[in-house]
Specification:
6-stranded mixed beta sheet, TIM Barrel, alpha/beta, Chitinase_II/V-like_cat, 8-stranded parallel β-barrel
Length: about 475
Protein backbone atom coordinates (compact mmCIF):
# COMPACT_ATOMS: atom_id res chain seq x y z
CA UNK A 1 0.00 0.00 0.00
CA UNK A 2 1.31 3.29 -2.25
CA UNK A 3 3.32 12.56 -0.06
CA UNK A 4 4.87 15.95 -0.46
CA UNK A 5 5.20 19.44 -1.48
CA UNK A 6 8.26 18.64 -2.90
CA UNK A 7 11.27 18.65 -4.50
CA UNK A 8 12.88 17.98 -1.22
CA UNK A 9 16.11 19.80 -0.67
CA UNK A 10 18.16 16.65 -0.45
CA UNK A 11 21.51 15.85 -1.96
CA UNK A 12 21.80 13.20 -4.66
CA UNK A 13 24.30 10.40 -4.33
CA UNK A 14 27.20 10.60 -6.72
CA UNK A 15 26.94 6.88 -7.38
CA UNK A 16 25.58 6.30 -10.88
CA UNK A 17 22.30 4.50 -11.23
CA UNK A 18 20.15 3.62 -14.21
CA UNK A 19 18.36 6.65 -15.69
CA UNK A 20 14.63 6.78 -15.18
CA UNK A 21 12.30 9.43 -16.46
CA UNK A 22 9.97 10.66 -13.78
CA UNK A 23 7.46 13.10 -12.43
CA UNK A 24 8.32 16.08 -10.34
CA UNK A 25 6.40 18.67 -8.38
CA UNK A 26 5.85 21.98 -10.09
CA UNK A 27 7.71 23.83 -7.34
CA UNK A 28 10.24 23.21 -4.58
CA UNK A 29 8.91 24.40 -1.25
CA UNK A 30 9.45 22.00 1.61
CA UNK A 31 7.66 22.68 4.85
CA UNK A 32 6.82 20.74 7.99
CA UNK A 33 3.98 18.31 8.51
CA UNK A 34 0.85 19.64 10.14
CA UNK A 35 -1.71 17.60 12.06
CA UNK A 36 -4.57 18.84 9.91
CA UNK A 37 -2.96 19.39 6.54
CA UNK A 38 -5.30 22.26 5.73
CA UNK A 39 -8.44 20.10 5.56
CA UNK A 40 -11.78 20.43 7.25
CA UNK A 41 -11.49 19.27 10.85
CA UNK A 42 -15.06 20.02 11.72
CA UNK A 43 -14.55 23.57 12.98
CA UNK A 44 -13.68 25.26 9.72
CA UNK A 45 -10.00 25.51 10.60
CA UNK A 46 -7.17 23.95 8.66
CA UNK A 47 -3.42 23.75 8.83
CA UNK A 48 -0.44 24.01 6.55
CA UNK A 49 3.17 23.09 6.28
CA UNK A 50 5.18 19.97 5.34
CA UNK A 51 8.80 18.77 5.14
CA UNK A 52 11.26 16.12 6.03
CA UNK A 53 14.60 14.66 5.20
CA UNK A 54 16.58 11.46 5.19
CA UNK A 55 20.07 10.15 5.66
CA UNK A 56 19.29 7.51 3.02
CA UNK A 57 21.20 8.59 -0.07
CA UNK A 58 19.03 6.53 -2.41
CA UNK A 59 16.05 8.84 -1.87
CA UNK A 60 15.11 10.70 -5.07
CA UNK A 61 14.48 14.43 -4.99
CA UNK A 62 11.39 14.10 -7.15
CA UNK A 63 8.03 12.73 -6.14
CA UNK A 64 6.71 9.21 -5.78
CA UNK A 65 3.66 8.43 -7.88
CA UNK A 66 3.26 4.68 -7.63
CA UNK A 67 0.71 1.89 -7.75
CA UNK A 68 0.46 -1.84 -7.31
CA UNK A 69 -0.13 -4.18 -10.23
CA UNK A 70 -2.05 -7.27 -9.08
CA UNK A 71 -0.79 -10.23 -11.11
CA UNK A 72 -4.02 -12.18 -10.61
CA UNK A 73 -5.93 -9.50 -12.52
CA UNK A 74 -3.62 -9.62 -15.54
CA UNK A 75 -6.15 -11.39 -17.76
CA UNK A 76 -8.66 -8.60 -17.14
CA UNK A 77 -6.17 -5.76 -16.89
CA UNK A 78 -3.13 -6.55 -19.05
CA UNK A 79 0.15 -4.67 -18.80
CA UNK A 80 -0.64 -2.48 -21.79
CA UNK A 81 -3.53 -0.93 -19.90
CA UNK A 82 -1.27 0.55 -17.21
CA UNK A 83 -0.74 4.30 -17.63
CA UNK A 84 2.99 3.87 -17.24
CA UNK A 85 3.96 7.45 -18.05
CA UNK A 86 1.93 8.70 -15.08
CA UNK A 87 3.93 6.71 -12.53
CA UNK A 88 7.47 6.88 -11.22
CA UNK A 89 7.34 3.21 -10.20
CA UNK A 90 4.92 0.31 -10.32
CA UNK A 91 4.99 -2.57 -7.85
CA UNK A 92 4.06 -6.15 -8.69
CA UNK A 93 1.92 -7.94 -6.08
CA UNK A 94 2.86 -10.39 -4.58
CA UNK A 95 5.72 -12.71 -3.73
CA UNK A 96 5.14 -14.79 -0.60
CA UNK A 97 7.09 -15.74 2.50
CA UNK A 98 7.56 -19.49 3.06
CA UNK A 99 8.54 -21.78 5.97
CA UNK A 100 12.07 -21.81 4.51
CA UNK A 101 13.72 -18.42 5.13
CA UNK A 102 15.95 -19.02 2.12
CA UNK A 103 12.96 -19.29 -0.21
CA UNK A 104 10.54 -16.64 -1.44
CA UNK A 105 7.82 -17.95 -3.73
CA UNK A 106 5.54 -16.59 -6.39
CA UNK A 107 1.92 -17.75 -6.11
CA UNK A 108 1.85 -19.81 -9.32
CA UNK A 109 3.44 -20.45 -12.69
CA UNK A 110 1.59 -17.57 -14.32
CA UNK A 111 3.51 -15.13 -12.10
CA UNK A 112 6.78 -16.75 -13.16
CA UNK A 113 5.89 -15.88 -16.74
CA UNK A 114 4.27 -12.50 -16.08
CA UNK A 115 6.83 -10.92 -13.75
CA UNK A 116 9.61 -10.72 -16.41
CA UNK A 117 7.11 -9.15 -18.82
CA UNK A 118 6.10 -6.67 -16.12
CA UNK A 119 9.72 -5.64 -15.52
CA UNK A 120 10.46 -5.36 -19.22
CA UNK A 121 7.38 -3.23 -19.85
CA UNK A 122 8.17 -0.94 -16.92
CA UNK A 123 11.72 -0.42 -18.13
CA UNK A 124 10.56 0.23 -21.69
CA UNK A 125 8.52 3.08 -20.22
CA UNK A 126 11.39 4.32 -18.02
CA UNK A 127 9.50 3.33 -14.87
CA UNK A 128 10.97 1.57 -11.85
CA UNK A 129 9.83 -2.04 -11.42
CA UNK A 130 9.43 -3.16 -7.80
CA UNK A 131 8.21 -6.45 -6.31
CA UNK A 132 6.17 -6.64 -3.11
CA UNK A 133 6.83 -9.49 -0.71
CA UNK A 134 4.02 -10.34 1.69
CA UNK A 135 0.49 -8.99 1.60
CA UNK A 136 -2.45 -10.11 3.73
CA UNK A 137 -2.07 -13.81 2.91
CA UNK A 138 1.68 -13.77 2.26
CA UNK A 139 2.98 -12.58 5.63
CA UNK A 140 2.71 -15.83 7.59
CA UNK A 141 6.44 -16.52 7.83
CA UNK A 142 7.97 -13.03 7.98
CA UNK A 143 8.59 -13.40 11.71
CA UNK A 144 10.59 -16.59 11.19
CA UNK A 145 12.50 -15.13 8.25
CA UNK A 146 13.85 -12.24 10.35
CA UNK A 147 13.87 -14.01 13.71
CA UNK A 148 17.55 -14.96 13.92
CA UNK A 149 20.80 -13.79 12.39
CA UNK A 150 21.08 -16.96 10.33
CA UNK A 151 17.53 -16.59 9.01
CA UNK A 152 18.02 -12.91 8.28
CA UNK A 153 21.12 -13.70 6.25
CA UNK A 154 19.30 -16.42 4.32
CA UNK A 155 16.23 -14.22 3.74
CA UNK A 156 18.35 -11.30 2.56
CA UNK A 157 20.15 -13.57 0.09
CA UNK A 158 16.79 -14.82 -1.20
CA UNK A 159 15.69 -11.20 -1.69
CA UNK A 160 18.87 -10.30 -3.56
CA UNK A 161 18.53 -13.40 -5.72
CA UNK A 162 15.02 -12.25 -6.70
CA UNK A 163 16.30 -8.81 -7.61
CA UNK A 164 19.03 -10.29 -9.80
CA UNK A 165 16.81 -12.92 -11.40
CA UNK A 166 14.12 -10.49 -12.48
CA UNK A 167 16.22 -7.31 -12.93
CA UNK A 168 14.15 -5.48 -10.33
CA UNK A 169 14.73 -1.88 -9.26
CA UNK A 170 13.74 -2.58 -5.70
CA UNK A 171 11.75 -4.57 -3.17
CA UNK A 172 8.68 -3.61 -1.17
CA UNK A 173 7.84 -5.33 2.12
CA UNK A 174 4.15 -5.62 2.99
CA UNK A 175 4.32 -7.38 6.35
CA UNK A 176 0.85 -7.40 7.89
CA UNK A 177 1.98 -6.94 10.67
CA UNK A 178 5.25 -7.00 12.64
CA UNK A 179 4.48 -7.91 16.25
CA UNK A 180 0.74 -8.14 15.57
CA UNK A 181 -1.59 -10.72 14.13
CA UNK A 182 -3.02 -10.14 10.67
CA UNK A 183 -4.40 -13.09 8.71
CA UNK A 184 -5.01 -15.11 11.86
CA UNK A 185 -2.25 -17.70 11.63
CA UNK A 186 0.82 -15.53 11.12
CA UNK A 187 3.82 -16.35 13.27
CA UNK A 188 4.23 -13.46 15.71
CA UNK A 189 7.18 -12.56 17.94
CA UNK A 190 7.28 -9.61 20.37
CA UNK A 191 10.67 -8.72 18.87
CA UNK A 192 9.38 -8.65 15.28
CA UNK A 193 9.95 -4.92 14.72
CA UNK A 194 13.51 -4.96 16.05
CA UNK A 195 14.26 -8.10 14.06
CA UNK A 196 12.77 -6.51 10.95
CA UNK A 197 15.08 -3.52 11.34
CA UNK A 198 18.08 -5.81 11.76
CA UNK A 199 17.10 -7.65 8.59
CA UNK A 200 16.66 -4.41 6.64
CA UNK A 201 20.15 -3.29 7.67
CA UNK A 202 21.52 -6.62 6.47
CA UNK A 203 19.70 -6.27 3.17
CA UNK A 204 20.73 -2.65 2.64
CA UNK A 205 24.37 -3.57 3.31
CA UNK A 206 24.41 -5.97 0.38
CA UNK A 207 26.25 -4.31 -2.54
CA UNK A 208 23.40 -5.20 -4.91
CA UNK A 209 20.91 -3.20 -2.84
CA UNK A 210 23.04 -0.11 -2.22
CA UNK A 211 21.38 1.95 -4.93
CA UNK A 212 18.12 0.03 -5.31
CA UNK A 213 14.84 0.81 -3.60
CA UNK A 214 13.74 -0.74 -0.32
CA UNK A 215 10.22 0.29 0.64
CA UNK A 216 7.36 -0.93 2.80
CA UNK A 217 3.60 -0.84 2.98
CA UNK A 218 2.68 -0.17 6.60
CA UNK A 219 -0.16 0.22 9.04
CA UNK A 220 -1.50 3.67 9.88
CA UNK A 221 0.36 3.31 13.20
CA UNK A 222 4.14 2.93 13.65
CA UNK A 223 5.70 -0.50 14.08
CA UNK A 224 4.98 -1.92 17.53
CA UNK A 225 7.46 -2.64 20.31
CA UNK A 226 7.74 -5.68 22.56
CA UNK A 227 4.70 -4.50 24.55
CA UNK A 228 2.50 -4.46 21.44
CA UNK A 229 2.15 -0.66 21.46
CA UNK A 230 3.45 1.61 18.68
CA UNK A 231 7.12 2.42 19.12
CA UNK A 232 7.96 6.00 20.10
CA UNK A 233 11.06 6.05 17.90
CA UNK A 234 11.17 4.49 14.44
CA UNK A 235 13.80 6.86 13.06
CA UNK A 236 16.29 4.05 12.42
CA UNK A 237 13.89 2.57 9.86
CA UNK A 238 14.11 5.79 7.84
CA UNK A 239 17.83 5.16 7.34
CA UNK A 240 17.20 1.91 5.47
CA UNK A 241 13.89 2.59 3.73
CA UNK A 242 13.58 4.85 0.71
CA UNK A 243 9.99 5.40 1.77
CA UNK A 244 7.05 3.73 3.44
CA UNK A 245 3.53 3.75 2.03
CA UNK A 246 0.94 4.17 4.77
CA UNK A 247 -1.98 1.88 3.92
CA UNK A 248 -4.70 4.36 4.77
CA UNK A 249 -7.52 2.13 3.58
CA UNK A 250 -9.64 -0.71 4.95
CA UNK A 251 -10.02 1.50 8.00
CA UNK A 252 -13.75 0.68 8.09
CA UNK A 253 -15.37 -2.36 6.52
CA UNK A 254 -17.60 -5.36 7.13
CA UNK A 255 -15.75 -5.97 10.42
CA UNK A 256 -16.80 -2.55 11.78
CA UNK A 257 -19.73 -1.65 14.01
CA UNK A 258 -21.30 0.69 11.44
CA UNK A 259 -20.79 1.95 7.92
CA UNK A 260 -17.76 4.22 7.80
CA UNK A 261 -15.05 5.62 5.54
CA UNK A 262 -12.80 3.11 3.80
CA UNK A 263 -9.92 5.56 3.49
CA UNK A 264 -10.57 8.66 5.63
CA UNK A 265 -8.45 11.73 5.10
CA UNK A 266 -9.40 13.06 8.52
CA UNK A 267 -11.43 11.41 11.27
CA UNK A 268 -11.70 14.06 13.95
CA UNK A 269 -15.41 14.42 13.13
CA UNK A 270 -16.10 10.71 13.44
CA UNK A 271 -18.21 9.49 16.37
CA UNK A 272 -15.69 6.65 16.71
CA UNK A 273 -12.28 7.58 15.21
CA UNK A 274 -10.45 4.57 13.79
CA UNK A 275 -7.55 6.38 12.14
CA UNK A 276 -6.96 8.46 9.04
CA UNK A 277 -4.29 9.98 6.83
CA UNK A 278 -4.04 12.95 9.19
CA UNK A 279 -3.65 10.84 12.33
CA UNK A 280 -1.28 8.41 10.58
CA UNK A 281 1.10 11.13 9.42
CA UNK A 282 1.00 12.66 12.88
CA UNK A 283 1.79 9.29 14.51
CA UNK A 284 4.66 8.36 12.18
CA UNK A 285 6.32 11.77 12.25
CA UNK A 286 5.96 11.99 16.04
CA UNK A 287 7.85 8.68 16.19
CA UNK A 288 10.71 10.18 14.20
CA UNK A 289 9.95 9.09 10.65
CA UNK A 290 10.46 12.07 8.31
CA UNK A 291 7.38 13.33 6.49
CA UNK A 292 9.50 13.52 3.34
CA UNK A 293 9.78 9.73 3.31
CA UNK A 294 6.08 9.05 3.80
CA UNK A 295 3.89 8.05 0.87
CA UNK A 296 0.13 8.12 1.32
CA UNK A 297 -1.68 4.95 0.34
CA UNK A 298 -4.89 5.74 -1.56
CA UNK A 299 -7.71 3.41 -2.56
CA UNK A 300 -9.28 3.00 -5.99
CA UNK A 301 -11.98 0.83 -4.42
CA UNK A 302 -14.59 0.82 -1.70
CA UNK A 303 -16.50 -1.51 0.63
CA UNK A 304 -20.20 -2.35 0.41
CA UNK A 305 -22.65 -2.82 3.29
CA UNK A 306 -26.21 -4.14 3.51
CA UNK A 307 -28.22 -1.25 4.96
CA UNK A 308 -32.00 -1.35 5.23
CA UNK A 309 -34.01 1.47 3.68
CA UNK A 310 -35.38 2.40 7.10
CA UNK A 311 -31.84 3.01 8.34
CA UNK A 312 -30.13 4.36 5.26
CA UNK A 313 -31.67 7.78 4.75
CA UNK A 314 -30.84 10.90 6.68
CA UNK A 315 -33.12 12.44 9.26
CA UNK A 316 -32.88 15.91 10.73
CA UNK A 317 -30.84 14.59 13.64
CA UNK A 318 -28.61 12.07 11.87
CA UNK A 319 -26.40 14.72 10.26
CA UNK A 320 -26.58 17.41 12.93
CA UNK A 321 -22.92 17.11 13.98
CA UNK A 322 -21.43 16.01 10.68
CA UNK A 323 -19.63 17.94 7.94
CA UNK A 324 -21.44 17.32 4.67
CA UNK A 325 -21.50 18.96 1.27
CA UNK A 326 -24.68 19.55 -0.78
CA UNK A 327 -26.05 16.52 -2.60
CA UNK A 328 -25.90 16.19 -6.40
CA UNK A 329 -29.16 16.83 -8.22
CA UNK A 330 -31.46 13.81 -8.30
CA UNK A 331 -29.96 12.09 -5.26
CA UNK A 332 -31.36 11.71 -1.76
CA UNK A 333 -29.34 12.37 1.40
CA UNK A 334 -28.28 9.27 3.33
CA UNK A 335 -27.41 8.95 6.99
CA UNK A 336 -23.98 9.20 8.55
CA UNK A 337 -22.46 6.01 9.99
CA UNK A 338 -25.68 3.94 9.78
CA UNK A 339 -25.96 0.42 11.17
CA UNK A 340 -25.71 -2.46 8.71
CA UNK A 341 -26.54 -6.16 8.72
CA UNK A 342 -23.23 -7.96 9.14
CA UNK A 343 -24.85 -11.29 8.26
CA UNK A 344 -25.53 -10.15 4.69
CA UNK A 345 -22.60 -9.20 2.48
CA UNK A 346 -23.67 -7.58 -0.80
CA UNK A 347 -21.93 -8.61 -3.99
CA UNK A 348 -19.30 -6.15 -5.15
CA UNK A 349 -18.43 -5.45 -8.78
CA UNK A 350 -18.07 -8.00 -11.58
CA UNK A 351 -14.59 -8.98 -10.39
CA UNK A 352 -15.89 -9.91 -6.94
CA UNK A 353 -15.84 -13.70 -6.97
CA UNK A 354 -18.03 -15.64 -4.56
CA UNK A 355 -15.73 -17.80 -2.46
CA UNK A 356 -16.99 -21.31 -1.72
CA UNK A 357 -17.68 -22.43 1.83
CA UNK A 358 -14.91 -24.49 3.37
CA UNK A 359 -11.78 -23.59 5.30
CA UNK A 360 -9.63 -20.49 5.00
CA UNK A 361 -5.84 -20.35 4.65
CA UNK A 362 -5.49 -20.79 8.40
CA UNK A 363 -7.68 -23.90 8.40
CA UNK A 364 -10.66 -22.21 10.00
CA UNK A 365 -14.21 -22.90 8.75
CA UNK A 366 -15.64 -20.19 6.50
CA UNK A 367 -19.06 -19.62 5.02
CA UNK A 368 -17.57 -18.24 1.82
CA UNK A 369 -19.40 -15.56 -0.11
CA UNK A 370 -18.42 -12.31 -1.84
CA UNK A 371 -15.95 -9.76 -0.50
CA UNK A 372 -18.24 -6.84 -1.28
CA UNK A 373 -15.39 -4.84 -2.80
CA UNK A 374 -16.26 -2.32 -5.49
CA UNK A 375 -13.52 -0.95 -7.70
CA UNK A 376 -14.16 2.61 -8.80
CA UNK A 377 -14.89 1.45 -12.35
CA UNK A 378 -17.30 -1.13 -10.93
CA UNK A 379 -19.47 1.56 -9.34
CA UNK A 380 -19.79 3.12 -12.79
CA UNK A 381 -20.38 -0.23 -14.48
CA UNK A 382 -23.18 -1.10 -12.03
CA UNK A 383 -24.87 2.28 -12.49
CA UNK A 384 -24.29 3.65 -8.99
CA UNK A 385 -22.12 6.38 -10.51
CA UNK A 386 -22.28 8.15 -13.85
CA UNK A 387 -19.48 7.90 -16.41
CA UNK A 388 -17.84 10.99 -14.91
CA UNK A 389 -17.77 9.47 -11.43
CA UNK A 390 -20.64 11.38 -9.81
CA UNK A 391 -23.60 9.76 -8.08
CA UNK A 392 -26.28 8.64 -10.53
CA UNK A 393 -29.75 10.12 -10.34
CA UNK A 394 -32.02 8.11 -8.05
CA UNK A 395 -29.23 7.00 -5.76
CA UNK A 396 -28.82 7.92 -2.15
CA UNK A 397 -25.65 9.96 -1.60
CA UNK A 398 -23.60 11.66 1.05
CA UNK A 399 -20.20 13.35 1.04
CA UNK A 400 -18.48 13.68 4.39
CA UNK A 401 -16.17 16.67 4.01
CA UNK A 402 -14.23 15.80 7.16
CA UNK A 403 -13.08 12.37 5.99
CA UNK A 404 -13.50 13.44 2.33
CA UNK A 405 -15.51 10.27 1.76
CA UNK A 406 -18.48 9.87 -0.59
CA UNK A 407 -21.13 7.23 0.07
CA UNK A 408 -23.61 5.98 -2.49
CA UNK A 409 -26.74 3.93 -1.76
CA UNK A 410 -28.74 1.68 -4.07
CA UNK A 411 -32.08 1.41 -2.30
CA UNK A 412 -33.33 -1.39 -4.57
CA UNK A 413 -30.46 -3.62 -3.45
CA UNK A 414 -30.15 -2.00 0.00
CA UNK A 415 -26.43 -1.63 -0.67
CA UNK A 416 -24.34 1.27 0.60
CA UNK A 417 -20.77 1.75 -0.59
CA UNK A 418 -18.03 3.81 1.03
CA UNK A 419 -15.45 4.71 -1.62
CA UNK A 420 -13.15 7.43 -2.99
CA UNK A 421 -13.83 9.57 -6.07
CA UNK A 422 -11.88 12.26 -7.95
CA UNK A 423 -12.83 14.87 -5.36
CA UNK A 424 -11.48 12.64 -2.58
CA UNK A 425 -8.26 12.04 -4.49
CA UNK A 426 -7.82 15.77 -5.12
CA UNK A 427 -8.20 16.49 -1.40
CA UNK A 428 -5.56 13.87 -0.65
CA UNK A 429 -3.25 15.33 -3.28
CA UNK A 430 -3.49 18.73 -1.60
CA UNK A 431 -2.87 17.13 1.79
CA UNK A 432 0.23 15.39 0.45
CA UNK A 433 1.65 18.73 -0.60
CA UNK A 434 0.62 20.59 2.53
CA UNK A 435 2.00 17.91 4.84
CA UNK A 436 5.31 17.68 2.98
CA UNK A 437 4.90 14.02 2.08
CA UNK A 438 6.75 12.24 -0.71
CA UNK A 439 3.86 11.09 -2.87
CA UNK A 440 1.08 8.54 -3.21
CA UNK A 441 0.68 4.79 -3.71
CA UNK A 442 -2.61 3.60 -5.20
CA UNK A 443 -4.13 0.18 -4.65
CA UNK A 444 -4.53 -0.90 -7.35
CA UNK A 445 -3.73 0.17 -10.91
CA UNK A 446 -6.74 -1.74 -12.23
CA UNK A 447 -9.25 -0.07 -9.93
CA UNK A 448 -9.45 3.33 -11.63
CA UNK A 449 -11.70 4.31 -14.54
CA UNK A 450 -10.13 6.24 -17.42
CA UNK A 451 -7.50 7.55 -14.98
CA UNK A 452 -10.06 9.79 -13.29
CA UNK A 453 -8.63 9.16 -9.82
CA UNK A 454 -5.00 9.15 -10.94
CA UNK A 455 -5.32 12.38 -12.89
CA UNK A 456 -7.15 14.05 -10.03
CA UNK A 457 -4.49 13.40 -7.41
CA UNK A 458 -1.63 14.28 -9.76
CA UNK A 459 -3.31 17.51 -10.84
CA UNK A 460 -3.93 18.45 -7.21
CA UNK A 461 -0.25 17.83 -6.47
CA UNK A 462 0.66 19.93 -9.53
CA UNK A 463 2.90 17.21 -10.88
CA UNK A 464 4.63 17.64 -14.18
CA UNK A 465 6.18 14.94 -16.30
CA UNK A 466 9.88 15.03 -17.01
CA UNK A 467 10.26 14.16 -20.69
CA UNK A 468 12.29 11.32 -22.14
CA UNK A 469 15.11 13.72 -22.91
CA UNK A 470 15.23 15.00 -19.33
CA UNK A 471 15.70 11.82 -17.35
CA UNK A 472 16.68 12.26 -13.73
CA UNK A 473 19.53 10.12 -12.36
CA UNK A 474 19.01 8.78 -8.88
Amino acid sequence: MHNLVLFLALSISSVWAAPMCSLRAASKSPSSASPTGGIDNGNGKGGGGGGGGSTNNTLPTDVVATTWYAGWHASKFPLNKVSWKKYTSVTYAFALTTPDSATISLPDASDEALLPQFVQTAHQNNVKAILTIGGWTGSIYFSTAVGSEANRTAFAKACVDLVKKYDLDGLDFDWEYPGKQGLGCNIVNPNDSDNFLAFLKTLRADPTMTNLMITAATSILPFVGTDGSPKSDVSEFAKVFDWIAIMNYDVWGSWSSSVGPNAPLNDTCSPSPQGSAVSAVKAWTAAGFPAGQLVLGVAAYGHSFFVSQTTAFATSSSDSSMSVSPNPSGTKAIAAYPAFDSHVQPQGDSWDEIAPAGVDQCGNPTDGGPSGVYNFWGLIEDGLLTSNGTAASGMGFRRDTCSQTPYVYNSAKQTMVSYDDPESFAAKGRFINEAGLLGFAMWEAAGDSNDMLLDSIENAMQLQQVGDDECILY
